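ingest -> validate -> predict -> emit
validate: passed (alphabet ok, no gaps, 158 aa)
predict: started
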Amino acid sequence: MSKAKAEPAAASVVAPASMFSDCGDTPCPEPLLPSATAEQTAALTDGVRMRENPAEWAFVRLSKLIEDFEKGLDKDEEIGASIVGLPGDGTMQIQDVGFWGPDFIMFLGKNSHGKPVRLIQHYAQVNVLLDARKKPEERPARRIGFQLSELVQKTNPK
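emit:
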């Protein structure tokens, strides 16, 4: 029997510090939306500063996009989502969005059967198609965008 040779330990890969910045005063980069006016673009980035935590930074921008999408809904609609990898028809009613840095974005809501769901995704793999859903008759349409924006403002770097 021959003994297997021990493999040398892999060298650690260390990213250079120049790849990272202190984003405290760095304004939010503007999104590139060809059909958006300058005012619409400014509204998306108003008061938002970049974040060092990648999950938080993804959450901040996602929150602003949700709030902007909700502005176009009528009083009988609320936000829903089709999310790649979600079981069944891949849709859910989004009731809340959160993050757990440095890497997770969380979507909380209900599936098409009214059962609670929590989708946890790595910030680099978030693909969400926001759509309008008919709200249940027994209550007013729920908006989550403003709540998310309030959280973003509370945690904005000074």
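The chain has a mean pLDDT of 75.
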